[in-house]
Design brief:
This protein has one domain: ABC transporter involved in vitamin B12 uptake, BtuC (Orthogonal Bundle), CATH 1.10.3470. With about 325 residues, it is mainly α. The chain has a two-stranded antiparallel ribbon.
């Protein structure tokens, strides 16, 4: 007597399940939705297009830095130097354009090149000298900050050419003004998502973060992957610096001092594991927007900025605790 295998789920059910967000991104999405609902009940201005545009403008720099931070954290590393590296890149762009009179596009190229070289140096110290990423990037944080102060002599650079501030310009969607910088941020997320999910280098990155020894035994050049990750992250920090210059309209040597922790916060809230090998880049964008939503909502409620820091700290601890719990359960 033959036994029949259980029937397959209906095609419609399979299609519905395939469209659901992955578990790593579902939590951040729910948290974002709940936060929006809460602040919408607290202020009539929160759900306006103008407010959401402002939130995106406020998170675009950290959002771009968080792309590079995500790549590093996916390999089980961390980068504490990204904000300082970005600040040095902004000073190279602005000072060469204003004081040296170089063509703006050339100064942008040189600024991004400098941040890329910083990333390459971070990667070389991690892969060749075998130093822990935390120590390497902590030291690079101080080096980049000191070089920024020395190179700029502590002076803010203003009077920038239009090419350096282009991404701070806006265009209209209906009655809402949107900056070109936000569009660039979304394009960078789309490119990164494609590389991570659809290409061999993306799969290699996840494999190295999940189990570097197993990845090496399968033929993946783990050290090369790490070196490329830190170098690409440095390149992305340079783009973040360009967006910062576009947003504030000047080169500020004191910028970038909290963006390293803000980018880590966005990555953690977005569901990427600090232990590497697990996470979705779109979750990082959601994490950055969550922080922006809380800051905007609390401001509209009239609460001091210290409460924004308090809430953000609580959210980070909850996100890491959830990650730990899910790993232990797994």
């Amino acid at each position: 007597m033959t036994t029949q295998s259980p029937p397959n789920p209906p095609l419609e059910r399979k299609s519905l399940l395939s469209r659901l967000p992955s578990s790593s991104i579902l939590g951040p999405l729910v948290a974002l939705f709940v936060a929006i609902l809460f602040f919408a009940t607290q202020s009539d201005r929160f759900l306006s297009g103008q407010n959401f545009s402002l939130i995106l403008q406020q998170v675009m720099v950290v959002g771009v830095l968080a792309i590079g931070q995500t790549l590093v954290i996916l390999t089980a590393g961390i980068d504490l130097s990204n904000g300082a590296i970005m600040a040095f890149g902004t000073m190279v762009m602005t000072k060469l354009a204003v004081e040296s009179g170089l063509p703006p596009l050339l100064t942008i190229f040189l600024g991004v090149l400098v941040t890329t070289l910083f990333g390459l140096l971070n990667g070389a110290l991690v892969t060749r000298v075998k130093l822990p990423p935390f120590i390497v990037t902590l030291g690079m944080l101080n080096i980049a900050f000191a070089l920024t102060q020395i190179y700029s002599t502590g002076q803010t650079i203003s009077g920038l050419p239009p090419a350096l501030t282009f991404f701070g310009n806006t265009f209209k969607i209906g009655s809402t003004a949107v900056t070109y910088g936000v569009v660039l941020m979304l394009v960078l997320y789309a490119i990164t998502a494609f590389v991570l999910s659809e290409t061999a280098p993306g799969r290699h990155l996840y494999a190295v973060g999940n189990n570097p020894e197993a990845a090496r035994l399968t033929g993946i050049p783990t050290q090369r992957v790490l070196l490329i990750v830190y170098t690409v992250a440095g390149f992305i920090y340079g783009i973040g610096g360009l967006l910062l210059v576009s947003r504030i309209g000047a080169g500020d040597p004191n910028s970038g001092q909290t963006e390293n922790l803000d980018s880590i916060t966005a990555v953690v809230l977005g569901g990427t594991s600090l232990f590497g090998g697990r996470g979705v880049i779109w979750g990082t964008l959601i994490g950055a927007i969550i922080v922006g939503v809380f800051r905007s909502g609390l401001t509209l409620m009239g609460l001091p900025s210290v409460f924004q820091t308090l809430i953000t700290g609580i959210l980070v601890i909850l996100a890491v605790a959830t990650d730990q719990w899910s790993r232990r359960k797994g």
